[in-house]
Design goal:
four-stranded antiparallel beta sheet, Rossmann fold, 34% strand, N-terminal domain of TfIIb, 2 domains, 244 residues, alpha/beta
Length: 244
Amino acid sequence: MKYIYREFAKFYENLKFGEFDKYAIPYIFQQLKNLKYKPKKVLDLACGNGIASVLLAKSGLKVYGLDISKEMLKLAKLRAKKANVKIKFIHADMRNFTLPEKVDLVVSLYDSLNYLLELEDLEKTFQNVFNVLEPGGIFIFDMNTRKTLRRWDNWIYFNEKYNLVMKGSFDPQANIAKLLIVMFIRKRKDWYKRVTELHVEKAYKKSEIRKCLRKAGFREIHFSEFPPIRGYSLPGRLFCIARK
């Protein structure tokens, strides 16, 4: 998993890529209510710009936010400060992390786990999650599937400050999707800085994900398709609830 979200972190929020979290968190709370489960401490794994972390903190939970991107963590800290909520942000790799204490809930949203391109890395991450959960704790996450990754296509955005070009592709043999992001950032009236990032995600079979969760020690595993919420629809996106 290469280090990404450097320059692109600055544009991530403006382009509303984090909007998914605003719809996902209320849905997650409804699922927890259905399970009659009331967590007090939560880890937002791969927290990005902190949208989910802040929503969780506003609900009264003690929140840890963990991400590998320093740039995204800067945005997350700024968001938490503006919202006047206390969140402990941690710069770490999801494949190798610990927490100061155990938590009742771990969430990982917007296909963050798909950035793990090797099954071994998915196993390591699930094991880390299992280790930081209290007995009976819950892990909730979503992942892209072949169906969703096949839809990665080309996209162009531009304004007075920058131009953004995205070129998507999908390898059906490897179940790998690539998104090449080329940014032209205006530095002067007649000069733009060119920056590129390559985002790569892998689609895993449900059976592979289940096997990794079982290997980590999770005993109750439930899969479903993430439903359309308030007009925000991503058909084929996998939603999972696993209990320690």
